[in-house]
Specification:
Strand order of the largest sheet: 2-1-3-4-5
Distance between the termini: 63 Å
Radius of gyration: 19 Å
Structural class: alpha/beta
Helix content: 40-55%
Oligomer: single chain
Strand content: 5-15%
Order of helices and strands: HHEHEHEHHHHHEE
Number of strands: 5
Number of helices: 9
Largest sheet: 5 strands, mixed
């Protein structure tokens, strides 16, 4: 097991390496944060946002929680989204799940996991909506992985249903929401091709009427 002192040693070695490669890196990083991407991902320690897409610190704004959820009563997530969209003016929201997600599997298996089951209930709602499609697969692993994909797609639309995103669209701000799933087996990202770039791509019942619509 690594000690805390090792982490400080690693930090000093990393900072020295970065400064050697780019002496002005930390000064530039401290003076400006201008990412074009918001990453909403799982808390799983095997899914590091920046490394997966090959971007440096400062290039991705990140929010992570168990099973990459966007829940409309989660003010932590919504605050991150609002800051990213309204202040940082990011251009892309990336909802990124991963196959064999422990949170998704826990929801699928119906075990008693304690407090977290209240959070995972949101995944069960996705499972219920797509129960026939999921049940048609032969193995539990395949069903869990399909549920991982369906959960990401559902969260993409949850992002789009927020007033934060819809207000950005109504004022003409370019913003696209994407759904991806990362594979721990090969390190590759699967694009679920569920990108949404405007209110016309979501159900009318979720669209927020803006003052511009009356002009």
């Amino acid at each position: 097991m690594r000690s805390i002192d090792e982490l400080f040693a690693n930090n000093r070695a990393w900072a020295h390496s970065v400064k050697t490669t780019d002496p002005d890196f930390f000064e530039k990083l401290a003076n400006q944060q201008a990412p074009e991407y918001l990453w909403i991902g799982c808390s799983d320690s095997r899914v590091p946002a920046n490394q997966i897409v090959g971007l440096l610190p400062g290039e991705v704004f990140v929010h992570r929680n168990v099973a990459n959820m966007v829940v409309h009563t989660d003010f932590n997530c919504l605050t991150v989204l609002q800051y990213a969209v309204d202040v940082l003016k990011i251009k892309h929201v990336l909802v990124v799940g991963h196959y064999n997600c422990g949170g998704v599997r826990a929801a699928y298996e119906n075990r008693d996991n304690g407090l977290i089951d209240n959070w995972l209930r949101n995944i069960k709602d996705v499972q219920q909506r797509h129960r026939r499609r999921i049940a048609a697969l032969e193995s539990d692993d395949d069903r869990v992985n399909l549920l991982c994909e369906l959960n990401v797609t559902s969260q993409v639309f949850n992002v789009c249903h927020t007033t934060i995103v819809q207000n950005a669209w109504s004022r003409g701000q370019p913003l696209s929401v994407h759904g991806w799933v990362y594979s721990l087996k090969d390190g590759l990202i699967n694009d679920l091709e569920c990108t949404v770039s405007g209110p016309e791509q979501i159900s009318a019942v979720y669209r927020v009427q803006s003052d511009r619509d009356d002009e």
